[in-house]
Write a structure and sequence with these properties.
Elements (H helix, E strand, L loop, with lengths): L1 H11 L5 H17 L1 H4 L2 H10 L5 H15 L9 H13 L6 H17 L6 H4 L11 H21 L8 H15 L6 H8 L4 H4 L2 H9 L6 H20 L15 H18 L3 H7 L1 H14 L3 H14 L7 H28 L4 H18 L2 H4 L2 H4 L7 H15 L3 H5 L6 H23 L9 H4 L6 H18 L1 H22 L3 H15 L10 H15 L14 H5 L8 H14 L8 H11 L29 H10 L2 H6 L13 H17 L9 H23 L1 H20 L3 H11 L4
Helix pairs in contact: 2-5, 5-7, 7-9, 9-11, 10-14, 11-14, 13-14, 14-15, 17-18, 17-19, 18-20, 19-20, 23-25, 25-27, 27-28, 28-29, 28-30, 30-32, 36-37, 36-38
Length: 754
C-alpha cells in the first residue's frame, strides 16, 4: 500500500484529468478510514487540504465527502485537530462555493465539526453559515437551517436549567431574536422553509405563538411583528405544503402521507384560530388599521388597492364589535383623499394644472374609486361631493368635438398635405381613444343615453374605423335599459331624417339612412323574444314620428320615414306585427293609408304573418318552430345560388347527405314547390330599380338554360331528393344568422320603391 501510495497516488492526484483526481481523493478517503494507523496522519491529510483548492467542483466535492467520513468517527477527532486548525478558514469560505452542491456538503461538514470537536466553531465563524438559510437553493438553505437549529438547541439546552420555559417557547424566542437581528427582515417565508424539515413541530406550535401575542409578556413591537410574520409564514407553509416562490422546482406532487399531514394541519389551524382571531384583531386593530391606511396612501397598483378595499369592507362588517372603529378610520381616510382631490379640482377645470397636479389628482381619484367599490364605503356622504355632471353647454361642445375632430373623412385631411401611413395610424388611434372616452361617459351615466345618437348616426358611414367601438356601446346601452337603447337607435334615425328634410337632400340620402337602419337592426341579435319589447317600442316611436304634422301644415313630411322603419320589421314576432298594424291604422289618417310609404311599411308587417305563395314571403326565423311540416322558404338570392348547386358537377360528386335537421321534408311536395317556383320565376316581372334592362336579359337567358334542368329533375327523382334535402339544410343554416346582404335583397324585393 505504501508503494502504491507513493508510486501512484502522489503523482496522479495532480493529474490533468479531473476525473482521475476525483478518483484518487475518493480512494484516499477510504484508505484513511480503513487503515488509520498507516494513513491517518498529517502527511496524508495534507493532500485533502490541498485538494480543497482544486478548480474543478467534482474534485472539491469528493474531498469534502472524504472529510465527512473522517469527522463522523469520534476516535479520529484527536488526530484531526491540527488539520482542522490549519484548514478551517478554507472550509468556512467554501460555504459560498459557486456550486450549490459543494456548499451544501461543506455546511454538513461544518455541522459535524461543530458537534464532534470540543471547541467547535466560534460565534463569528457560525455567522458565515446563518445567512444561507435565506438562499434560493432549497437544499443549501435546509442544510443551513439544520445547522442553525442544532446551534439553537445547544444554546437552550444550556439555559434549560436556569429557566422553566418549555423547549418550544425557548426556541420561539430564539428564532424571534435571530429574525429581528439579521438583515433579511422581508424573507420570513424563506427562514420558515429552511427550518421546516428539522423544526416542524416547534413551528406548528401555534398555541405558544398566540399565547405570546395575547398575554402581556413584555415583548417589543418589533418582536411582536416578527412573531406575527413567522406565524403567518408557518401557517402558509403548513396549509399549502409547498416551498415559497423561488425555491420550488416545478409542480411537486404530494404523496399520500404528505396529503394526510396537510389535511391534519389545516384542521388544527382552523380549530385553533377561528375563536382567537377576533381577540387578536381587537388587540392589534389600531396597528392594522394604520398599516392599511399607509398602504393605500403609498401604493397605486390596482390589485393592491382592491385588496385593501376588500379588507376594509370586512373589518367594517357589523359582525365584529370593533366595526365602528374601523368605519371611523376609513371614513377619515376617504376625507383625506377627497380633500387631496378637491385641492386640484379648480386648476383642473380651469386648465391651469401642470403634469404633477394632474398626476396627483388622478392617483387620489384612483384610490377613492378603489375604496368606493365596496358597499361599506359606497354610501359615504363625502363621495357625493365628487359628483360633477357636465353642463348643457359642455355637452354641446363635446358633441361638436366629435363631429369636427373624430368623425372626419381621411380624404379631407390628406388634402392639407402629404401624410404618411404611420401618421394616419397615429391619428386614427387618437380619434378612437377620444370616441371611446365619449362612449364611456354615456355608459357610466355621466351623459344621458340620448347623447349616444351622435355616435349611432355614424355607425354605417364610419364602420371601418369605429365599428367595434360603436357596436360595443350599443350592447352596453342595452344592459342599462333595452327599451331606452332601442328608442335611442330610433331617435338617431329620426334626427338624420329631419336633417335630410331640412337641407333638402336627394333621395340617395334616404338610401343611406336605410343602410344605417339595416346595420342597426342587426344589433338586436337572433333572440327575438328577448328583443321583443325594445323592437315594439322602436316601431311605435317611429310610427308616431312619421305621422307627426309640422306646425301650420296639414301634410305629413315625415311619412317616408316608414321606409326606414321597415328595415326593422323582419325582427318582429307575429303577435307584435298584428299589434303594430292596429297601431299604424289608429295613428295614420285615413287618406294616408294609400300612400306608398304607408303601404310599403304595412306590407313589411304583413309579409311574415299572411301566408302567400311566393317563397320569399313565407315564414320568419321566429316561426321556424311552428313550420314543422313545410320546407324552409328561400330568398331570391338563394334561388340564384340554387342553379349553381344544381349543376352537373355538383350533382354527380356529392353523395346523399345524412339528415341532421329535426324537420323531415317530403320529397314530392318539395319537388312540386321547386318546379312551381322556378316556373313562376320565368314570368315574374322585375322592378326597374332592382335590375337594369341588361340584367333582365341575363335573367331571361339563365331561365331558358334552366328549363332542361327542370325537366331532367323529373327523371332523376332519387338524386333530386338528396339535393333538395341538402338545399334545405343549407337554407336552415342561412336562416339562423342572415348577413346584411341577405337583408338588402330581402327588403328590396319585399318593399318596392314608389
Amino acid at each position: 500500500m505504501n508503494a502504491t501510495f507513493r508510486g501512484v497516488f502522489v503523482h496522479r492526484y495532480r493529474d490533468k484529468l479531473p476525473e482521475i483526481r476525483a478518483v484518487c481523493i475518493e480512494e484516499l478517503g477510504m484508505w484513511l478510514k480503513t487503515d488509520p494507523e498507516d494513513f491517518l496522519n498529517d502527511g496524508c491529510l495534507k493532500y485533502l487540504g490541498w485538494t480543497l483548492h482544486d478548480k474543478q467542483s467534482p474534485v472539491r466535492l469528493q474531498c469534502v465527502r472524504a472529510l465527512q467520513g473522517l469527522y463522523q468517527e469520534k476516535e479520529f477527532i484527536g488526530r484531526l485537530e491540527l488539520f482542522t486548525s490549519r484548514f478551517k478558514e478554507r472550509i468556512l469560505s467554501m460555504v459560498l462555493d459557486k456550486e450549490p452542491d459543494v456548499a451544501l456538503q461543506v455546511v454538513n461538514l461544518l455541522l459535524l465539526i461543530q458537534q464532534s470537536s470540543e471547541g467547535g466553531l466560534e460565534e463569528d465563524e457560525c455567522g458565515h453559515i446563518y445567512p444561507l438559510v435565506f438562499a434560493s437553493h432549497r437544499g443549501l438553505a435546509c442544510a443551513a437551517g439544520n445547522f442553525l437549529y442544532h446551534r439553537m438547541k445547544c444554546m437552550f439546552d444550556d439555559q434549560k436549567q436556569e429557566s422553566l420555559k418549555s423547549d418550544n417557547a425557548a426556541f420561539i424566542q430564539m428564532i424571534i431574536a435571530f429574525y429581528t437581528q439579521c438583515e433579511f427582515h422581508e424573507h420570513g417565508a424563506y427562514l420558515v422553509d429552511s427550518l421546516w424539515d428539522v423544526a416542524g413541530s416547534e413551528l406548528r406550535d401555534w398555541e405558544t405563538m398566540t399565547a405570546y401575542l395575547l398575554v402581556e409578556t413584555g415583548m417589543l413591537d418589533e418582536e411582536e411583528g416578527a412573531l406575527i410574520e413567522l406565524m403567518v409564514c408557518a401557517i402558509q407553509r403548513a396549509s399549502q405544503a409547498t416551498p415559497p416562490v423561488g425555491r420550488s422546482q416545478g409542480k411537486k406532487i404530494l404523496s399520500i402521507k404528505d396529503k394526510k399531514i396537510q389535511e391534519q394541519d389545516r384542521g388544527r389551524i382552523t380549530a385553533h384560530f377561528i375563536p382567537l382571531l377576533p381577540q387578536l384583531l381587537t388587540k392589534h386593530l389600531d396597528q392594522l388599521l394604520s398599516q392599511i391606511c399607509g398602504i393605500v396612501e403609498k401604493h397605486t397598483a390596482a390589485t393592491v388597492l382592491e385588496a385593501c378595499a376588500h379588507l376594509a369592507s370586512s373589518l367594517c362588517s357589523e359582525r365584529y364589535t370593533f366595526s365602528s372603529r374601523a368605519h371611523t378610520t376609513f371614513s377619515q381616510l376617504l376625507d383625506t383623499l377627497t380633500d387631496c382631490f378637491n385641492s386640484y379640482l379648480n386648476e383642473l377645470l380651469q386648465g391651469s394644472a401642470d403634469e404633477d397636479d394632474v398626476y396627483s389628482a388622478a392617483i387620489a381619484l384612483k384610490r377613492i374609486g378603489a375604496l368606493s367599490c365596496e358597499r361599506s364605503v359606497r354610501n359615504e356622504p363625502v363621495l357625493q361631493t365628487l359628483v360633477h355632471l357636465p353642463s348643457d353647454s359642455l355637452r354641446s361642445e363635446m358633441a361638436a368635438f366629435l363631429l369636427d375632430y373624430v368623425f372626419t373623412d381621411s380624404d379631407d385631411e390628406d388634402l392639407s398635405g402629404d401624410v404618411d401611413e404611420e401618421t394616419k395610424i397615429t391619428q386614427l388611434q387618437r380619434k378612437r381613444k377620444q370616441l371611446a372616452g365619449y362612449c364611456k361617459l354615456v355608459i357610466y351615466g355621466v351623459l344621458d343615453l340620448s347623447a349616444a345618437t351622435d355616435v349611432f348616426k355614424k355607425y354605417d358611414k364610419y364602420f371601418k374605423d369605429y365599428g367595434d367601438i360603436i357596436r360595443e356601446t350599443i350592447s352596453k346601452t342595452k344592459l342599462i335599459s333595452p327599451v331606452l337603447s332601442a328608442k335611442t337607435v330610433c331617435l338617431s334615425l329620426q334626427q338624420l331624417f329631419s336633417e335630410m328634410l331640412t337641407e333638402e337632400r336627394s333621395k340617395q340620402d334616404l338610401c343611406e339612412i336605410r343602410d344605417l337602419a339595416k346595420r342597426l337592426a342587426m344589433s338586436f341579435g337572433i333572440d327575438l323574444h328577448r328583443a321583443r319589447k325594445p323592437l315594439v317600442a322602436l316601431h311605435m316611436d317611429g310610427i308616431r314620428f312619421a305621422f307627426r304634422a309640422s306646425q301650420g301644415d296639414e301634410e305629413l313630411p315625415n311619412a317616408p320615414f316608414l321606409e326606414v322603419l321597415s328595415m326593422f320589421s323582419f325582427k318582429l314576432l307575429p303577435k307584435d306585427r298584428a299589434q303594430l298594424i292596429s297601431f299604424l291604422k289608429s295613428e295614420c289618417p285615413e287618406p294616408a293609408l294609400c300612400w306608398s310609404p304607408v303601404r310599403l311599411y304595412q306590407r313589411s308587417l304583413e309579409a311574415r304573418t299572411v301566408s302567400k305563395p311566393r317563397d320569399h314571403e313565407r315564414g320568419d326565423q321566429s316561426e321556424a318552430v311552428t313550420a314543422q311540416n313545410s320546407p324552409v322558404p328561400k330568398r331570391k338570392r338563394t334561388i340564384a345560388n340554387d342553379s349553381a348547386m344544381n349543376s352537373s358537377s355538383f350533382h354527380s360528386s356529392l353523395p346523399t347527405p345524412v339528415l341532421t335537421s329535426t324537420v323531415l321534408k317530403e320529397p314530392s311536395k318539395a319537388l312540386i314547390s321547386e318546379e312551381s317556383h322556378e316556373a313562376s320565376s320565368l314570368t315574374e316581372p322585375q322592378s326597374e330599380e332592382d335590375f337594369s334592362s341588361t340584367s333582365q336579359m341575363r335573367v331571361a337567358k339563365a331561365n331558358k338554360r334552366r328549363l332542361p334542368k327542370i325537366r331532367k329533375r323529373a327523371a332523376e327523382h332519387s338524386d333530386l331528393n338528396s339535393h333538395l334535402t341538402l338545399l334545405s339544410l343549407i337554407d336552415d343554416i342561412e336562416e339562423e344568422e342572415p348577413n346584411i346582404e341577405d337583408y338588402e335583397s330581402d327588403s328590396d324585393h319585399l318593399f318596392p320603391h314608389r
